[in-house]
Amino acid sequence: MHDDKRQIAILGSTGSIGTQALDVIRKHADLFEIYALTANQKVELLIKQALEFLPEMVVIADKQKYPRLKEALSHLPIKVWAGEDALSQVVQAEPIQMVLTAMVGYSGLKPTLSAIRAGKAIALANKETLVVAGDLVTRLAAEKQVPILPVDSEHSAIFQCLAGERNNPIEKIILTASGGPFRTFSSEQLAQVTSKEALKHPNWNMGAKITIDSATLMNKGFEMIEAKWLFGLTTDQIQIVVHPQSIIHSMVQFRDSSIKAQMGLPDMRLPIQYALAYPKRIDSDFERLDFNRVPILTFEEPDKNRFRCLELVYRAVRKGGNMPCILNAANEIVVAGFLEDKIKFPAVSEIIEQTMEEVSFIASPDWESYVQTDAEARRKAEEIIKAI
Ligand code: MN3
pLDDT tens-digit profile of 250-285? Predict the structure, then answer.
């Protein structure tokens, strides 16, 4: 078979994380091999990637794009599948060693659980998976002894700070936030911002959904939940600090008061590469940080009044059960609405809050209840948007 190269499946290969992961893999063809690529709809890019990386299999979630994909790859021995269910099947293929989950939102949950069930190491870029069902996911991963390697830059930073600290408990973590494009805006200014302005992130180059989440600070709230599950922490052990330069990617404080930070220029390829090659550090030609050219690093407290989504995240976590799932579903709907300019910026948190109040609460949800909750919360949020 494929000698000793690490066999990788990428869920969401045409998105921002997926394409950056392929950049890393292209440069390290001696270490990694692509076994499977999947995309939601961008069929032309998927074809291009398949022709370059020659995976064993490709999946397009949007079934209407199947004929085009099939035809374009018909001269090659690549298996071509379509549909959501195929995503959960391909990740179980025997030779796959690691699955990079780079899909957007709730849709990443099911294939991630499927990959864990099959014992595949997870490079987790789909934070919504842990926001929605962190209990299910982490329990299953522990049971199957499957490592979940964070790709989110903050969580990768924390994970890197924990190297060599196996028996030293975390006192707290300091999760840094850039503050997004509207960090200095007043409430009045926030009421007028457009999706176009929100899509201009100051430091990080990311997909549309996460960029809007960064502008509302929902992303940081989600990352708080993600950290809670990944590192087994309480919310009291997680401090969010706004650090506009995005040089410190997060920190860990230990019980002797020592704080370790992981730093560098903001470049998602580093946390992607760290997860793919873990536990090894491998070469990179990424631009190096020169401290003589960073005049100042600043820190400030996040403002939960101007950025209400952050407050809603804490409320959802305190409540527990299916509440974070409701929060996530409502957020996916309002972000789509905001991107289509159907709603204004302040309505984002208002609609989420109303959805959280109106969807039925379940204290100990199982898989079925998560599926139902997600559907109900989406319906409710859509209804509220239509009524505006
Ligand atoms: Mn992040």
Answer: 999 999 999 999 999 999 999 999 999 999 999 999
Tokens of 126: 């789909």
What's the 249 CA to ligand 1 centre distance in angstroms? 9
Average pLDDT over residues 149-166: 97
Per DSSP, 15 falls in state: S
Report the separation in Å between the CA atom of 43 and the middle of ligand 1, taken as the mean of its atom positions: 27
Distance, in Å, from the CA atom of 83 to the CA atom of 78, rounded to the nearest integer, reads: 17
Tokens 């609460």, located at residue = 361
CA angle 313, 314, 316 (to 5 degrees): 65
C-alpha 153 – ligand 1 centre gap (Å): 5
**3-class SS at 244?**
coil
Residue 219 Cα to ligand 1 midpoint, Å, equals 7
- Closest by Cα among 134, 48, 33, 178 to 93: 33
Q: Is the pLDDT of residue 240 over 90?
A: yes
From the CB of residue 388, how many other CB atoms can be counted at a distance below 10 Å?
11
What is the residue-wise DSSP string for 80-91?
A: EEESHHHHHHHT
Question: In DSSP terms, which residues pair with 242 in a beta bridge?
Answer: 177, 300
CA atoms within a 13 Å half-sphere pointing along the CA-CB vector of 157: 28
Give per-residue pLDDT as tens, 20-60.
999 999 999 999 999 999 999 999 999 999 999 999 999 99
Tell me how far CA of residue 258 lies from CA of 29, 168, 243, 250, 343, in angstroms: 39, 11, 19, 14, 45
Contact in structure between 57 and 35 (CB atoms under 8 Å):
yes
Cα of 206 to ligand 1 centre, how many Å?
10
Pair 103, 126: CB distance under 8 Å: yes
Give tens-digit pLDDT for 117-138.
999 999 999 999 999 999 999 9
CA separation for the pair 354, 334 (Å, rounded)? 12
Per the listing, tokens 């990959």 go with 115
CA dist 306 and 262 (Å) reads 29
Q: CB burial class (10 A; 0-12, 13-18, 19+) of residue 164? A: exposed
